[in-house]
Every structure is written in structure tokens, then in C-alpha cells.
Amino acid sequence: MVTTQLAGRDIVDERVLDAMGAVPRHRFVPESERSAAYEDHPLPIGLGQTISQPYIVAIMSQLAEVEPPCKVLEVGTGSGYQAAVLAEMGCEVWSIEIVEELAARAAVTLDRLGYGRIHTRAGDGYRGWPDQAPFDAVLITAAPPRIPEPLLSQLRVGGRLVAPVGDWHQELVVITRTPTGFERRNAFPVRFVPMTGEVRER
To answer: Sign of torsion, CA 36 172 148 132?
Structure first.
């Protein structure tokens, strides 16, 4: 997976490659999907949710440009796999999952694997985790129609937010907080499950 799907493409950050090699991806998918755990496509994890393909996890981690010690907010814990990769890169991660059953399942998996630097909770991630801000990076792993303002406000200056944005047409977006505002660039088209909750009421 690391050699052909990641290093064989455009994943050049050695810390990302090392982290992707260290995390046992098969532990984050249902037993029925484990034979495909290291293939380069998303897999169902139940409750209408998926674990992203390895390349997407790697490129989002690379675009975040975090270096230890780093604090990262993740909105959309899902299986817990992305959080585990970030933890292997030396980050402390605060991760929020709106589907309570998924949040509980991910917490158990991460605890069993010894990821004590990952803090999870069930809830709507729209307002982030303000009492732990500012963060060096914010990753959103479901697609909002627009970036929630509270998440931007929780970035430190120089920090990056990486997220899929849009409904029918989605782009992976990287937003960097500057001393005077925010800089945004689109990376490439993607397809994620939609972000739900308060973001749909705005």
C-alpha cells in the first residue's frame, strides 16, 4: 500500500508514509471488509459511513503540513483511522463524531491500539472544540456545503484547515490562516459523504 499507492504517486512526506505504514488499517474496518483493508478505495464501516481510501487519508495528512508537537482537530472521527495516522505523525488529536455508535466504536479501537493522544467525543462538530483551541490543523472528513466559521476561528495563525467542500461538486480545499485573514486553494475534486448536523441549518 505505502510503496505503490502512496509513494508511487505524490505522497512525499516521509512522516506521512511512515505513519501510514505503522497504523494497522485492517483494525479499523469490519471483519467482513478486512481482506480489502489495504486496497486503494473506500470501504463501508456501517451506519451509512465509510473509511476513506488510503491515498485520501495520506494526502489530507500531507496537506495539513503538521510537525510535532502538534494539536489537530478532526471533525468526523468515523472509524478512527485518520486520527490514528495523525497520532503516529506526533500529533495530539481531538476528534468529534456525530454518529454516537461510530464514536463509541472508534474510541474502543483507538484505546485497544494504545492511542492515548487521541481524545474523542460524540457530538456535532460544527462548533469544534473551542476549549482546546487554537489548533495547528483542522481536518474535516465529511463534506460541508461551506466551511463552518467556528472551525476557521480555532486555527492558529499559520495553521491549515483541510476539507472536502460542496454538495454535488466537491473540492478538497486547503485554507491557511494568515495574520490578516485566510488564504484558500482548491487541491482536486473528491467525493465524500456529506457533513450533517448544524452545518445544514446555516
So the answer is: positive
Q: How many domains does the chain have?
A: 1
Parallel, antiparallel, or unpaired: how do β-strands 49-51 and 43-46 relate?
antiparallel
pTM of the model: 0.96
Domain-embedded: residue 146: yes
What is d(CA 88, CA 90) in angstroms, rounded to the nearest whole number?
A: 5
Domain containing residue 150: CATH number:
3.40.50.150
What is the side-by-side order of every strand in the sheet holding 91-97? 118-122, 91-97, 70-75, 135-140, 155-165, 170-178, 181-190
User: Of residues 52, 61, 79, 95, which has the active-site annotation?
Assistant: 52
- The residue ranges of DSSP E strands in 42-117, in sequence order, are 43-46, 49-51, 70-75, 91-97
Any domain includes 32: no
pLDDT digits (tens, 9 = 90+) for 30-83: 999 999 999 999 999 999 899 999 999 999 999 999 999 999 999 999 999 999
61 in catalytic set: no
Containing structural domain, residue 107: 59-201
Q: Is residue 65 part of a domain?
A: yes
Q: Is residue 33 part of a domain?
A: no
Mean pLDDT, residues 104-119 taken together: 98
